[in-house]
Amino acid sequence: MPSQPLYMDIYHDLLELIHHNGSDKQFALPTERELCLQYRVSRSTIRSALAMLKDDGCIYTVHGSGTFVKSPVIEQKLQNLYSFTDELKCRSDASNCEIIEYSLIPADAELSKKINCLMGDRLHRFVRLRSVIDSPLMLETTYLPQSRFYRINLEVVKNASLYGFLRSNYSLNIDHAVETFQPMLPSPKEKELLHIHHALPCMLLERYGYEEGVIIEYTRSVVRGDKYVFRVDLNGHT
Length: 238
Prior knowledge:
Blueprint: H1 6-21, H2 32-39, H3 43-55, E1 59-62, E2 66-69, E3 74-77, H4 84-91, E4 95-106, H5 109-115, E5 122-132, E6 135-145, H6 154-157, H7 162-170, E7 176-184, H8 188-193, E8 202-211, E9 214-224, E10 228-231
Parallel strand pairs: 3-10
Antiparallel strand pairs: 1-2, 4-5, 5-6, 6-9, 7-8, 8-9
Helix pairs in contact: 1-3, 2-3
């Protein structure tokens, strides 16, 4: 019985390496040259093994940076109002939301236009990092008017849904929300917090939550382009 091609052995070896390190964690594979030296084979043999991993959706290549393990993509449906905290907890017990910054700030000209409030009105400002199994997914900055939500319990919010806290303590009732999406390149600080080590486009998601026609929440989220896909199901006829 003929033995399988050498690149198949390397393919299975690299696949085991990926699973051993955790396929949900992003890391770089050795370079083609390093793999050639490690396995003592030609570059064409290594490229055949890498091509199979790429076809399987396990890896991707960034020109000039290297070959990286592709982490699983989370699909978020957009039919109804949703909470990222609740959605992630449904998908994984290892989801985490860390409060990076909190402050009470006066609204500047840009924020007063976005939230439709007066300049100088006091706003709660949260910066939160969402992760699954220590793998950062998105960086959220949320603004809430202090006139509606006088005090925020950070100890409660960091371990639970912000929406849940606001519903329980302030009878929040967001009747509808508007979200906009556009591609963006993250800032150096955003790249650091999201553990982005190479050129990776992100998605800028802006959410405006309304209560009885009044904007009650504005959230600006920087979402890793390799972690999330947003899905809309369209029905009806044109």
